[in-house]
Amino acid sequence: MFRAAGLDFGHTETRAVSVGLLWGAPTKLDSYASFKSPIVSMPSDRLTIRTLNVPDSGREIQGNVIREELRLSLPFPIDEASWDWIVKEDNATVAITLNSQLAEFKEQHKLPEESIIDAEPFAYLRLCHEAKVEEALVFDFGASKTTVCAIKEGTIYWVRVSFRGGRSLTKEISLEKKIGDQEAEIHKLTVGTDEPKCKQWLQEIVAASLLSAPVPFDKVFICGGGAQMKGLPEELSSLLGQVVEPMPMPSGLSPYTDAIAYGMALANKPGVPGVQLVHVVEEESALPWKYAVWLLVLLALATLNLEIHNYTANKSLEQQTAVYQEAAAQVLPDLAKQDPEDYQSALNKLTETNVANKRSSPEYILELMAQMARPLSKQPNLEIRRMEFTAEKEVPTMTLQGQARSVQQVEEFRQGIEGILQKPEILENKKGRQDVVSFSIEGEVPAP
């Protein structure tokens, strides 16, 4: 009654482990039929794992945030997904699978309706928690695939799956040595990494996981049947620059056969992180009639308030227009005679005219020339011999002509006046007699 069962439908066999929720040692199970709600591992290759930032709020709000994030980022519609999440601080670790994958998985293994479908990477997370390890890299060497799961700060950091499992390696050895599959399996496990094919296989898995030595994890754990290969821990340690050890397991359980089933069973223990993959449906319910009545009342009040607001705004506008006309009559009599609706365009035109006049005024041009004294003083032997101002263009321009000692000096001066003229451009920059460079620079006169 106070025990939970975890199931791992491996490629070669089904493993089941039960754990006491309050007391009692974990034990292997020959049958899980007596457990109404076993916790079943959904394989990593049928999942996608996402880490998302969520607000520090209730689970309902966090769920809405996650739903919208997934709606934008998933390659399939969110309505076709089953998902669940855990939160640590402000990060949510979300496990997602397709509804079709979930239904197929349940049908394939004839699971009871009450079964809880958990995500395989959370088994690794719980095993590390049980071992009091916050940061670890877990390699699960299975028959059909190899899964690598990174645990950082007590939560899932990333998961990578390679379909280079132990069965494919056995087949390669069988073909290369022209021996049967069973003999090749024994050769793989007993000769291990002394066999070049096995060493290459392990190197390819590490490379596919985008890992390089030394890996930034406190621990590296291995589990799964393929981890029994002779020399594998030592060779993997060499590749990762970190000591590799079997996943810690309680007495009576093996890291090579029972790790996932035990990790699943741990999900029902109090305070242990876990997910339950279910199809989350957005609720759409009709409002009760009393709420509909209240809604109509609120709409009527809102309409009345809007009418009052519009009336008040119109009166205020009339008062502002009268004040504006009186002020304009004293300063700009011609503007005051125009229709109030034309004030803005008339003001804009007046402002543009004033800016254009100021832009072309001698005082403003002299002011710009004075600003050029500083960049000019930084270029000894560079002289400005002529300045031309052109106001006929849409934007007035200023052209500076002079001499310098080098082409580089001209470019440095051009860069120095970039904050004074807009888009200064060298029109001419050529070397003449006695290594004297003649130059011409043109730039737009900025608005004052």
Descriptive account of the structure:
28% of the residues are buried. α4 packs across α5 and α6 (196-208) crosses α7. The protein has 4 domains: 1-131 and 253-284, 2-Layer Sandwich (Nucleotidyltransferase, domain 5), CATH 3.30.420; 135-246, Nucleotidyltransferase, domain 5 (2-Layer Sandwich), CATH 3.30.420; 289-337; 359-444, Gyrase A, domain 2 (2-Layer Sandwich). It is flat, with a radius of gyration of 38 Å. The longest helix is centred in the C-terminal third of the chain and has 43 residues, at 289-331. The chain has 448 residues and is of the alpha+beta class. The model has no long low-confidence stretch (mean pLDDT 85). The chain is built from 14 helices and 18 strands. It has a 5-stranded mixed beta sheet.
List the main descriptive attributes of the protein structure presented here.
14 helices; Nucleotidyltransferase, domain 5; 5-stranded mixed beta sheet; flat; 448 residues; 4 domains; single chain
